[in-house]
Inverse folding.
């Protein structure tokens, strides 16, 4: 938890990014193209956030990057499969 | 490894999984991604093997769509539209044409425009417009979706229109049991707008009309709901495992090279919210 508190400024930017994504989906609820762009943008930004965060804390390794890529890919495939099923 | 140990291996950080719950290892998540992809492929192929198994349950009375549309106009200080039986029939024919020729568009693959349906039913218009919707569960969600889109809202709120015709037709579109809503707007007059004079004569033969405009269909499986259910289950499982993993790692002060659990939980939590927010229905 102390570690989390120390990283709070980083997490604020992450929460802002995720909040923007949610608002995009809620406001443009029937604009599929916008939703697809939003999903890709948020997933990509999450990987970039992870890379910067770990680089700044000097614990950036290939397997960490792969982890962020895999998690964002999971999120992306779930959202895209829903958008294309609507 | 007995069953309990196998479960613990996947949900709790311990020496057997290098102090990271098995479900959170990248190769396991990649297998989950692949499984979700395969599920979507299966859903896509179901209509060709088992037609009309997939579909969207809906209950959309025509009168309610017209009432809600007029309600929006009155709220904006506009006059309500009068229901015109000719426009109702034309809208019905348009919906039947989309099902018969398996398309979802304002203009059919053969080039038939919405205005052809107006003219084929003898409706001489001065101004005409069309809103389309599909796969909505109820009339208010249809009208709300149109109102959320600028171009559709302009049709609903246009002072140029005096009459309305709505059709709700259920049928098989691209192998999926679908409910189409066609909303025609018009105002009559001898003078035909310049843009509408160029509408080509295609000799459209309206399809036989489907009786009954109040439809309540109950397909076996909604592709959206089943995808939502599976996605929510996967996300719920991973969020739970992440939480347990984070607590144990924090309490045991385990050092490991890994991404931030709080960040992953936040991201997956956001995805779960999106899963809950996404609604069925498309407009055109």
């Amino acid at each position: 938890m102390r570690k989390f508190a120390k990283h709070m400024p980083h997490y604020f930017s992450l929460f802002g990014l995720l909040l923007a994504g949610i608002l995009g989906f809620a406001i443009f609820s029937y604009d599929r193209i916008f939703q697809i762009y939003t999903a890709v943008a948020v997933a990509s930004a999450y990987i970039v956030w992870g890379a910067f965060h770990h680089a700044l804390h000097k614990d950036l390794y290939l397997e960490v990057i792969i982890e962020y890529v895999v998690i964002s890919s999971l999120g992306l495939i779930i959202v895209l499969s829903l958008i294309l099923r609507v | 490894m007995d069953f309990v140990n196998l479960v613990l291996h996947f949900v709790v950080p311990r020496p057997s999984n290098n102090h990271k719950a098995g479900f959170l290892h990248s190769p396991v998540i990649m297998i989950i991604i692949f499984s979700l992809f395969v599920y979507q492929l299966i859903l896509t192929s179901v209509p060709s093997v088992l037609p009309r198994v997939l579909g969207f349950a809906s209950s959309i009375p025509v009168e309610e769509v017209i009432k809600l549309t007029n309600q929006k106009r009155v709220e904006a200080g506009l006059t309500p539209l009068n229901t015109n039986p000719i426009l109702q029939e034309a809208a019905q024919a348009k919906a039947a044409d989309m099902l018969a020729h398996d398309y979802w568009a304002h203009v059919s693959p053969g080039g038939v425009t919405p205005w052809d349906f107006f003219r084929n039913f003898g409706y001489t218009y001065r101004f005409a417009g069309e809103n389309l919707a599909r796969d909505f569960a109820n009339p208010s969600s249809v009208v709300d979706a149109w109102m959320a889109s600028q171009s559709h809202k302009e049709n609903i709120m246009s002072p140029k229109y005096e009459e309305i015709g709505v059709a709700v037709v259920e049928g098989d579109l691209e192998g999926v049991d679908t409910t189409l809503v066609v909303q025609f707007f018009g105002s009559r007059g001898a003078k035909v707008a310049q843009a509408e004079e160029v509408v080509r004569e295609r000799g459209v033969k309206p399809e036989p009309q489907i009786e009954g405009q109040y439809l309540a269909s109950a397909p076996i499986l909604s592709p959206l709901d089943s995808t939502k259910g599976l996605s929510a289950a996967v996300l719920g499982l991973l969020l739970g495992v992440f939480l347990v993993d984070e607590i144990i790692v924090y309490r045991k002060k385990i050092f490991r090279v890994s991404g931030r659990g709080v960040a992953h939980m936040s991201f997956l939590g956001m995805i779960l919210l999106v899963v809950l927010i996404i609604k069925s229905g498309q407009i055109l």
About this structure: The interface with chain B takes residues 1, 4, 7, 11, 14-15, 18, 21-22, 25-26, 29-32, 39, 42, 46, 49-50, 53-54, 59, 61, 63-64, 66-68, 70-75, 77-79, 81-83, 85-86 of chain A (CB under 8 Å). The helical segments of chain A are 2-6, 8-27, 32-56, 62-83. Residues 2-83 of chain A form one domain. Residues 42 and 84 of chain A are 18 Å apart (CA to CA).
